[in-house]
Amino acid sequence: MLDKQAILDAYQFRHACKAYDPARKISDDDFRFILETGRLSPSSFGLEPWRFVVVQEPQTRALIRDMAWGAREKVMECSHFVVILARQPAMLSPDGDYLPRFMREVQHLPEEAVQMRLRFFRNFSEKDFELAGHPRAFYDWACKQTYIALGNMLTAAAMIGVDSTAIEGFPLEAMNSALAGRGLYDPAQFKLSVMAAFGYRLNAPQPKTRQRLQDVVQWA
Ligand SMILES: Cc1cc2nc3c(=O)[nH]c(=O)nc-3n(C[C@H](O)[C@H](O)[C@H](O)COP(=O)(O)O)c2cc1C
Question: The Nitroreductase domain covers which part of the protein (predicted)?
Answer without folding.
Answer: 13-180
